[in-house]
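Supplementary Methods. Inverse-folding protocol.

Structures were first reduced to a discrete structure-token string of length 756. This string, shown here, constituted the complete conditioning input.
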């Protein structure tokens, strides 16, 4: 099609008017709405849907958008589309490619900005919004040739590809600058590429997905935000807000460097961006329209928790586009060096509206918080959650006006957080509950069955017969369980109302005293009350938080790794890691149980009688040789042979996935001929338990059976292993089936994807 009329300066010539008519005819043939198209004049910049007469008037009065040579927002195929001739009189084109996706995104984004109604006066166009200016820049970049004569890439498309490769390859900013210098030198004169990475970043920033820097007290007392925004020192600890203050050479400006900065990525804009693309917007309704509803749990939307939330809040559930989220966080050292003490805690939101193949993928994750610092925020984590919780409260109560590109309409978008995903120490930071000591189990709370070991200085958690059915023989088998019977019922987790009542009188002062040295934990006196919660969690500001069936998940990944480490280290007798050592045997003697395993003093040494799970040096060597000879297909598992030392009879340095493979697949094979039958049977039951927990499809009845099976398995382990074996991570196994029954498959609620 002839487009030379677009460059004519005189817009009243016959050639220009004929070009406008041809454009209107072409655009309306490809219009998705029918009676309206996006107006490409220099003031509307493809941001408003208008009728044909209005578009014609604007094109004659104001002229067409400069550089809009490819009418990709009006149905024109991209230059990289493959044409295969005619098929039944219609043009056939390949499925959408990257350039088509960019064009669709620009068109949907332009539609979302057309929210001003019918504007009659032109004065409103004199001061275009930042969004309109960004759209105009996008359209110009998408229509501009990369260099004179380039037909395959536009400036926008090439720059998007380049930035994506930089992200995947982990390039430094300096290397990206050097590449841009080379490309600008290699391309013909007139290249549209930016000169530096700083210029390229402006493209991303123009979308409006930046972050807000909020200064924080270095002792984690408060944020210098809202009522404290103008403070120069912390109102709690009186510490200065600034690290340094410098004056400019002319003395007119003062540059202040804060000691600690929280980066907050506003969640409202990011959730709105989910609906800018028509493809993504339609997938937000998948949980209601697209999933299989046969009573099995394949997705969090199938879970009783999701359905219970919809029942309690029908207004929220009425619109399936409202977003259900999970909040995940964990600390890590960004410098990858154990010599540097530094901890960064990112806060990640995971939308659950999408299909399973999208939910736990990295592109679906939304970074909301970035908490830096030389030490972890710990119990002061709530200080940094305030901006996110305030926005989530407003998102649930009021919502935010959002354009749905898939339906071409505006609606009030609302959002809610269903649960948190953390490792177990992180659960204590996020929830405010105690995760060590007498009441370390949040589900068992004050009814936690714990014993303080005097020699090992550890707390063990046993008494798993309480979780068995009331008529189970183990409850009355006093001979196998050190002369005791078990008649207590299983503890019931606290409800949200009970937690609010429990924490009603807790007065929390956030912050750390830098002058106070860390003290050792002391044992609670008999007259002192049992501490279950350190503070009331900030999440209870959300009106629905108290009504959730499950608020905080136990991470299966870390539980499985700790259980595997306990088993392997104890079987191999690895120094300082085995749960069977002299202190463990002395604790047996102090408790007066398992007399056949008490240490025997011989002169100045102790002899430890062999336990049922003890392996001889030859058996340990054979155990290592079996694992050393295992080979896996590519991509199934890492090569754990590097972690197995046959001569030293040691297995060290296993990662989480190594433990996953070892416990579920290799351990049952390795111990079958080495250990007594009752020990093998118990360990194989543990292996099968985790296999069932990782099932992608769950039946509620199967999880109910698994609740009884794991209680029986842990009771068998109590007969075999020493009390020191049963740390809190082993105990938490008993609660995993209950959480799966309430919230669905564990791969949606574990740390695998977050830590990756």
């Amino acid at each position: 099609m002839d487009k030379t009329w677009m460059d004519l300066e005189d817009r009243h010539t016959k050639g220009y008017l004929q070009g406008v008519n041809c454009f209107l005819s072409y655009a309306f043939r490809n219009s998705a709405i029918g009676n309206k198209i996006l107006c490409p004049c220099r003031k509307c910049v493809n941001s408003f849907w208008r009728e044909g007469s209005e578009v014609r008037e604007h094109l004659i009065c104001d002229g067409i958008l400069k550089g809009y040579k490819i009418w990709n927002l009006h149905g024109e195929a991209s230059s990289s589309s493959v044409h295969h001739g005619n098929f039944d009189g219609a043009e056939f084109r390949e499925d959408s490619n990257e350039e088509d996706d960019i064009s669709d995104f620009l068109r949907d984004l332009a539609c979302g900005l057309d929210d001003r109604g019918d504007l009659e006066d032109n004065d409103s166009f004199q001061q275009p919004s930042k969004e309109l200016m960004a759209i105009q820049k996008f359209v110009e970049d998408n229509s501009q040739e990369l260099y004179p004569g380039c037909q395959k890439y536009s400036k926008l498309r090439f720059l998007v590809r380049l930035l994506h490769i930089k992200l995947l390859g982990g390039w430094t900013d300096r290397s990206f600058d050097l590449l841009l210098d080379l490309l600008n030198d290699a391309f013909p004169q007139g290249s549209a590429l930016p000169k530096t990475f700083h210029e390229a970043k402006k493209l991303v920033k123009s979308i409006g997905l930046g972050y807000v820097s909020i200064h924080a007290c270095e002792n984690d007392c408060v944020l210098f935000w809202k009522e404290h925004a103008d403070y120069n020192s912390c109102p709690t600890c009186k510490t200065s807000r600034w690290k340094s203050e410098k004056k400019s050479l002319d003395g007119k400006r003062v540059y202040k460097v804060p000691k600690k900065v929280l980066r907050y990525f506003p969640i409202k804009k990011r959730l709105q961006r989910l609906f800018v693309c028509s493809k993504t917007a339609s997938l937000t309704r998948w949980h209601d329209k697209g999933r299989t509803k046969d009573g099995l749990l394949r997705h969090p939307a199938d879970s009783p928790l999701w359905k219970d939330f919809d029942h309690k809040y029908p207004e929220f559930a009425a619109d399936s586009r409202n977003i259900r989220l999970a909040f995940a966080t964990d600390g890590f050292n960004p410098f990858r060096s154990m010599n540097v003490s530094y901890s960064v805690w990112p806060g990640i939101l995971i939308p659950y509206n999408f299909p399973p193949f999208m939910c736990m993928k990295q592109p679906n994750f939304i970074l909301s918080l970035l908490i830096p610092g030389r030490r972890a925020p710990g119990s002061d984590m709530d200080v940094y959650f305030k901006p996110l919780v305030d926005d989530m409260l407003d998102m649930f109560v009021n919502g935010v006006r959002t354009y749905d590109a898939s339906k071409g309409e505006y609606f009030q978008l609302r959002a809610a957080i269903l649960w948190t995903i953390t490792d177990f120490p992180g659960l204590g930071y996020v929830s405010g509950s105690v995760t060590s000591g007498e009441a370390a189990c949040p589900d068992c709370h004050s009814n936690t069955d714990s014993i303080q070991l005097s020699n090992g200085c550890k707390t063990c958690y046993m008494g798993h017969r309480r979780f068995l059915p009331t008529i189970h023989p183990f409850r009355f088998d006093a001979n196998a369980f050190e002369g005791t019977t078990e008649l207590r019922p299983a503890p019931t987790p606290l409800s949200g109302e009970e937690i609010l009542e429990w924490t009603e009188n807790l007065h929390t002062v956030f912050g750390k005293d830098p002058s106070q040295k860390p003290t050792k934990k002391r044992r609670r006196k008999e007259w002192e009350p049992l501490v279950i919660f350190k503070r009331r969690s900030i999440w209870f500001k959300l009106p629905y938080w108290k009504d959730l069936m499950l608020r905080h998940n136990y991470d299966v990944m870390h539980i499985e790794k700790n259980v595997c480490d306990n088993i392997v280290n104890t079987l191999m007798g690895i120094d300082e890691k085995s749960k069977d050592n002299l202190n463990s045997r002395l604790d047996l003697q102090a408790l007066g149980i398992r007399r056949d395993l008490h240490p025997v003093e011989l002169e100045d040494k102790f002899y430890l009688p062999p336990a049922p799970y003890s392996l001889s040096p030859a058996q340990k060597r054979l155990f290592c040789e079996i694992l050393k000879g295992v080979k896996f297909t590519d991509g199934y598992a890492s090569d754990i042979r590097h972690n197995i030392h046959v001569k030293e009879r040691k297995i060290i340095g296993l990662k989480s996935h190594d433990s996953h493979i070892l416990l579920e697949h290799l351990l049952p094979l390795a111990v079958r001929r080495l250990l007594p039958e009752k020990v093998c049977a118990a360990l194989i039951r543990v292996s099968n338990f985790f296999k069932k927990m990782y099932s992608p499809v769950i039946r509620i009845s199967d999880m109910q059976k698994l609740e009884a099976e794991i209680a029986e398995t842990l009771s068998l382990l109590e007969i075999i292993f020493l009390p020191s074996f049963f740390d809190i991570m082993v105990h938490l196994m008993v609660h995993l089936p209950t959480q799966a029954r309430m919230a669905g498959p564990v791969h949606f609620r574990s740390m695998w994807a977050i830590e990756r």
